[in-house]
Amino acid sequence: MQGTDMPRLGFGTYDRKGDEGIDAIGCALETGYRHLDTAQDYGTEAEVGAAIRRSGLPRDEVFVTTKVTPANFGPGALVPSLERSCETLGLDHVDLALIHWPAPNGERPLSDYIPQLAEARARGLARHIGVSNFTTALLDEALDILGGVPILTNQVELNPLFRNRTLADHCTARGVIVTCYQPIAHGRIGEDPVMRQIAETHGATPEQIALAFELSRGYAAIPTSGKAERIRSNFRALDIQLSEGEIDRIEGLDRGQRSIDPDWGPDWD
Ligand SMILES: NC(=O)c1ccc[n+]([C@@H]2O[C@H](COP(=O)([O-])OP(=O)(O)OC[C@H]3O[C@@H](n4cnc5c(N)ncnc54)[C@H](OP(=O)(O)O)[C@@H]3O)[C@@H](O)[C@H]2O)c1
């Protein structure tokens, strides 16, 4: 599982809407990002498709993820919703389809919608499937339901200030790649003096250090920005090698403060 074709550094597209959004996603592709993260809920699937077409890149060089919103979990609803996503993207399949959130307040059992996700994969609408915002218990239950069908990733909030270690370690132990959302703490990573200091040592930004840390742990990360300079600079995290000592210091920064925590969300670990 860990050796798949999903590029570990991707570009998030929340808020990358309209012409500015297409320009930002296009800038990411020009910079070298080959993994774009969208969702039915973001309203950026059309922008992702437009930017890919404009880039002239062959379809199979860009790894495209979308996420199914809980409103589409009802019987027979998930597969048609992914067909609509593909139509909006202008693609005949996505590389990865995720369950965006477990059903709000657990109002629907996983057995209602996880098999529909597997069906989407079997029909070729998605090359891989996965989940997002799943706890250890929900991940185990989903893996049980799927039998041998692999879950590629669990996309969760994780950055040096919110380490989410119990969940991340469990994903890794179960062969599920951790994808970090809010990987630069939504722009707040530079508030931390240790991150600033390590960045200075490398002639880098705290954001690059956060991303390099996550990649060093074997995770994927999907930062976003609407600014070309930041899109480019975040990508250069791939060039940074942290020492074991630096990694240990970053491991000590966890504040345990989750930032995305809706009241209808799951019982977190
Ligand atoms: N699965 C889920 O439930 C879920 C939840 C949240 C997010 N996501 C995904 O994860 C992606 C990233 O998460 P996110 O957007 O919440 O957080 P993020 O990538 O950690 O942070 C983005 C914010 O940081 C700023 N920023 C970017 N680069 C910077 C830099 N080098 N220096 C200083 N500030 C910088 C951006 O502002 P500027 O635009 O002004 O640069 C933006 O406000 C989303 O786009 C989405 O694809 C998924």
TrEMBL record:
Q: Which GO terms describe its molecular function?
A: methylglyoxal reductase (NADPH) (acetol producing) activity
Q: Where is this site: Lowers pKa of active site Tyr?
A: 67
GO biological process terms, semicolon-separated = methylglyoxal catabolic process
* Family matches, as Pfam families: Aldo_ket_red
What residues does the NADP-dependent oxidoreductase domain cover? Answer: 9-254
Q: Where does substrate bind?
A: 100
Q: Which residues form the active site?
A: 42 (proton donor)
* Keyword set, alphabetical order: NADP, Oxidoreductase
| PANTHER family (alphabetical) | 2,5-DIKETO-D-GLUCONIC ACID REDUCTASE, NADP-DEPENDENT OXIDOREDUCTASE DOMAIN-CONTAINING PROTEIN
- What family does the Swiss-Prot or TrEMBL record give for this protein? Belongs to the aldo/keto reductase family.
* Protein name as annotated: 2,5-diketo-D-gluconate reductase B
Q: What is the lineage of its organism?
A: Bacteria, Pseudomonadati, Pseudomonadota, Alphaproteobacteria, Rhodobacterales
